[in-house]
What does this fold into?
Amino acid sequence: MNQFMIIVKGKDPISVSPEEMQERMNKFGAWVQNILSGRYVSGGPLDENEGRLLKSKKEILTDGPFMDSKEMIAGHFIINATDIDEATELTKECPLLDQFVLEVRKLKKMD
It folds into this structure.
């Protein structure tokens, strides 16, 4: 089994009510339970207000917030799948695909 990271990208900040956010999280949780049963490894959203982009040990290019980015990374999750095709098919069922762009990337095994 291989591991794949699904990177959740958004183009614009999303402002939704707490109720809408809860509904989205419920749908995502149901997808993890039903579609990814036994395949979901980890994941979570990123804090859009705190982070740093480093160019070198001495130079910080960006010190948040990151909401102004042209292509904001909103979060990630890691799943197990046999290959990229299977990971892609599983990701196509993700309810986040309605609001975000999802990028599927294979993680290299580190020995």
